[in-house]
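Format notes (please read before filing issues)

Several people have asked whether sequences and structure tokens are stored in separate files. They are not. Every record keeps both together, in the order shown below: the sequence lines, then the token lines. Line labels are part of the format and must not be stripped during preprocessing.
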Amino acid sequence: MKTLYVYADFDWLKKTELIGEFGYEYLRGSDSYCFTFSDEWLKKHGDLFLSDDLNNCQLRCGEASGPKTYLFV
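Then the structure lines:
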């Protein structure tokens, strides 16, 4: 899996912070994407929603499917 680390550098933050990891994998003939929020980001900013498509969740890419696993195919 290829991973892209997503950082926030908003003007209201004192320093740049890791939001999470965006993952990509070519799996069974199709592209598969996932996003995992950083535990620290959720502790500090868990009430901040960055997207209607992503709810704040602590599951990791590749964990068992569930209502809070964010996989994009």
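For reference, the curators noted about this record: Residues 24 and 36 are 12 Å apart (CA to CA). The first strand starts at residue 2 and ends at 8.
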